[in-house]
Amino acid sequence: MVIVMNPNATGDQIKKVIVRVHNAGLRTHVVEGESRTIIGIIGDKKAIMALPIEALEGVEKAVTISSSYKLVSRDFKPTPSVVDVDGVKIGNGSLIVMGGPCAVESRDQLMEAAQIVKAGGAQFLRGGAYKPRTSPYAFQGLEEEGLSYLAEARAATGLKIVTEVTEVAAVELVASYADMLQIGARNMQNFHLLKAVGRTGKPVLLKRGLSATIDEWLHAAEYIVNEGNYNVVLCERGIRTYEEYTRNTLDLSAVGALKHLSHLPVIVDPSHGTGKWHLVRPMSMAAVAAGADGLMIEVHPNPAEALSDGPQSLNPGNYMALMHDVQRLAEFLKNEVR
Amino acid sequence: MVIVMNPNATGDQIKKVIVRVHNAGLRTHVVEGESRTIIGIIGDKKAIMALPIEALEGVEKAVTISSSYKLVSRDFKPTPSVVDVDGVKIGNGSLIVMGGPCAVESRDQLMEAAQIVKAGGAQFLRGGAYKPRTSPYAFQGLEEEGLSYLAEARAATGLKIVTEVTEVAAVELVASYADMLQIGARNMQNFHLLKAVGRTGKPVLLKRGLSATIDEWLHAAEYIVNEGNYNVVLCERGIRTYEEYTRNTLDLSAVGALKHLSHLPVIVDPSHGTGKWHLVRPMSMAAVAAGADGLMIEVHPNPAEALSDGPQSLNPGNYMALMHDVQRLAEFLKNEVR
Amino acid sequence: MVIVMNPNATGDQIKKVIVRVHNAGLRTHVVEGESRTIIGIIGDKKAIMALPIEALEGVEKAVTISSSYKLVSRDFKPTPSVVDVDGVKIGNGSLIVMGGPCAVESRDQLMEAAQIVKAGGAQFLRGGAYKPRTSPYAFQGLEEEGLSYLAEARAATGLKIVTEVTEVAAVELVASYADMLQIGARNMQNFHLLKAVGRTGKPVLLKRGLSATIDEWLHAAEYIVNEGNYNVVLCERGIRTYEEYTRNTLDLSAVGALKHLSHLPVIVDPSHGTGKWHLVRPMSMAAVAAGADGLMIEVHPNPAEALSDGPQSLNPGNYMALMHDVQRLAEFLKNEVR
Amino acid sequence: MVIVMNPNATGDQIKKVIVRVHNAGLRTHVVEGESRTIIGIIGDKKAIMALPIEALEGVEKAVTISSSYKLVSRDFKPTPSVVDVDGVKIGNGSLIVMGGPCAVESRDQLMEAAQIVKAGGAQFLRGGAYKPRTSPYAFQGLEEEGLSYLAEARAATGLKIVTEVTEVAAVELVASYADMLQIGARNMQNFHLLKAVGRTGKPVLLKRGLSATIDEWLHAAEYIVNEGNYNVVLCERGIRTYEEYTRNTLDLSAVGALKHLSHLPVIVDPSHGTGKWHLVRPMSMAAVAAGADGLMIEVHPNPAEALSDGPQSLNPGNYMALMHDVQRLAEFLKNEVR
């Protein structure tokens, strides 16, 4: 951390800042600039973070130099991590696809979706049994009944199951059905939930919060890993901006940024990221080309009848065409470019 | 809802949309525009919201005309609500202030803070015993120990206690100590938690999510009220924007907007809203003048030693001066202008 | 500026950075942190700003410590500036109001508006003769004809005229009619235009860009002042955020921030800032309480017939009521609180 | 446009709205909903846009159904446009690259850059002779001297020249040197400048404004095309969001959105879009895969000595590697996938 003093800070004020820092067991490095004094702080990150330095008189601002996450950082582990979900590896250079409906709506809908997802070559079936919805009057999910259909679809197809868990109380139950636990955007900073899924040891798919910075997102992952669970995959799903044409703004630069800052695998969800089915194909191709380890794609046997997020779901035909293209692209990139 | 068809949508596509709407038990109203057909949908809000119309062929977009919250709306209840917190009324035209430290750090710190808060004339003591923090390594709160100090401070001063609850499992415990339950910004869409505090019947202070629209915020309130608990007070605490000088951008226009759309009382938190203590005074004055029913202000006996959010906390002197000014302003507005 | 090196930067890379800085005539201060090296740079701000340090190998990031504007800063001139517009002073503690229609639409409309504005007690008449419009098909203003009506309205009422200039070629013409030149939000970084109005020496009202940071805004003001024209007044008019209920998000914390960072007067435009006439009153009151030196208010004799921005214009009755309230509030604040 | 009345609007208020619309030569379509009346307006887009309906009593809001741009829309011209820049075609399915330094700094720098750009296989040389800079103290460009170096580099390499014009007064001069005129992000809504470049008939590269919606961007293009100049290419260069790791958030979904809404070609600038050279490669690959017609890439012979935007410039080695990869990718996509 670097403390920037006011140009008119007194010597006494500067001294008090230094004493305050030293009292916290940290070292200082004072630099007299042209117009103001700057004080560098050296020492333990956690102790530095705990300092309310801006509350001291004469301080203009405090600038954080390095982030406080550690276990998820590339500095800590320079090689990319591979997350193994019951034999399916995420992050080893092969493209992974998680397909399926936004919500599990019925046994028939899910079984039909699973067959399509499987036929296209995806490795995972997605589908929400617990749906966080803006309105209390919208469909909230089939809960355990939905989980049982997911398990049945797995038995029928061999697909791995990734599904969202939305509360601590349901973690054990969801973990007993799912191969991978999804933390949704709204719960990215539900720290109790992060710790709870961390303690399960199960692979976790951590979606980016709607207005989370990359730094906050990696801190959220740190909560999980800090419980001893390194099986974390990050999922970019669009951020909230002023643009209204798309539901969210899919931030593909996050893929490269995360690869630079962290060792965790990264996948992309262009369905939620754009909210429009006709943008799913171009953004899927773009995500793969940007270096994503996988895709999460909404597929519905009949989008027009979906109980949730129909406008962004692919129908079976579009899904099959997309899978063909992204797989060929991934193969090309693996063999000929990288 | 209004469905906007593509300019080149076929008659067959238009027909299919209409059939789909009718099958959902809704009525349609077709308007042939200059270049495209528009279909108005009439009927039950919930049924309309559940339609995935944009997934149908030939549909350009679906435009939502009216929101789906009901119980919290001004249409539903045209007169302002007054929330009674054990005798203290919020929303009756008098200014309410909730003061105190961001976090309960120790018995001494809290008791000292409570005396200051009381001396300034506030009605509530605030202070977090459970602190959601971006980093797992930051101070996370004293938990039940903190709650007991809050109760002790209440006994000593007569101040009402408002404190945050961050998980369903702790609702009962926190409710046994607090007079009012606070839902923090990160949990505004933690729907399980909203329902849980709704079921307690206790007054709830619902903070706006970091990137929540006013519409989403009112839907979150609807989750609480839908459980039968009408004792909800909304708290504007700044939204996330591109501006970096302030921690958040305090959206004071939300006060007037909420008064227009809803009957619930509204208070403002300029401490989190700006992140800088020197902006707390001007934004407190502004909030009162904008028509807020109350303020939530961070006060710390010694901000430079705070374990959390020191830079935005007022010291005792600044707090006393602020209280004098906002109270005089509130009185002036009540007697001479409104 | 502080340069943060990668944790694994080599000694050679660090050396090269230092040499590069020294070659630019600047001094360095090297701090060896726990996990990485940090290099402080000391010297002339302009020389520091010109360094493309992040392009050097081993550099993680460069953190700017202090801004490069100077003439508009409070460090440079610690006392508030008062801008004199032909005898009317902005920034001397009295509330200034600029009222009038968004656009000059006709002689009759403007003369009627001017009489209303005058009757309410405002000092300035506003009204656009040149209107920057999103669509090429929207009303673009009466141009010089509009300016002549403004001059006529001034003659009739004694109000000062503030009106927008949108291109360098029109600066001389507009300056020959207006008492104060307005730079609109879209032109806040039209640097040619800033220099041109700077050269006139006329008072300038500089509106904040739609997504301008406070830092960029002050730099834009610096462009004007750097031409020798210190008669600059800043106008907060709302920033673009994700919120859709209001046209923009009026950032009232900018008032206090600007007062802290700069000596220039600040006014607020709640009409553009909210886009809804029913929010103009609460946000006007809030702006005054936040310490603004003035208000810019849209008033139209008949908002429902306005050619531009009718929904945010006050009708004569609402305007008169507002003026009564804001003037009483300003008086109260001046005499009893500050 | 659809007018949504308040639930408690009176019959008289509804009648007045209808009369107001009819007086503007438009037709209405009244729909009685469950709780409120909705009035559809049919007729000429321009007349509809000019209505200040929200200013009428009893109106809750007015919802715009279709945008007012026309000439640039896909509805107007269903086939993609190809822009011919002196023989080089943009939008015909081949990848176009515009490479070069952010600013023309010297004859040597530019000639060296041009040789590198040419060697990599790009078709255009970019480089700013007029630089809009946030600070008045930053390097502002070599102006006409810079233009002459660009012309010299064209003579030496055969590359086409694209360079920014920042004011109406310089349009003729820049057009006499350049093959394509660039409108920068800050000038996207400088309507005088848009009309001026429109009148030249020269190909125009229109960058997206920093916080421009796609709708506003297409309206800006409409200003140019409305002058009779259809040679417009759109350039996505990142939008302003809350995320701080990247300089901007590159919105690649804009590529697909623009292809859906408009017939104009679209290119992407990942250098400004990310602000970090190490993100240029992944985002270039992603842009190509998303369907962009071209890329604009910053290349500098020696980024560490650049006077502007060094951190986001590729050095020659990285540029050559990138060109190899994007060209192979474009070829693959053209031949095997699309």
UniProtKB/TrEMBL annotation, chains A, B, C, D:
Domain DAHP synthetase I/KDSA: 87-331
GO molecular function, one term: transferase activity
Keywords: Transferase
InterPro entries: Aldolase_TIM, Class-I_DAHP_synthase, DAHP1/KDSA, DAHP_snth_FXD, DAHP_syn_2
Keyword Transferase: yes
Residues covered by the DAHP synthase ferredoxin-like domain: 1-66
Biological processes, Gene Ontology terms: aromatic amino acid family biosynthetic process
Pfam families noted in UniProt: DAHP_snth_FXD, DAHP_synth_1
UniProt key word Transmembrane: no
Matches recorded under PANTHER family: PHOSPHO-2-DEHYDRO-3-DEOXYHEPTONATE ALDOLASE, PROTEIN AROA(G)
Name of the protein: 3-deoxy-D-arabinoheptulosonate-7-phosphate synthase
Organism: Dendrosporobacter quercicolus
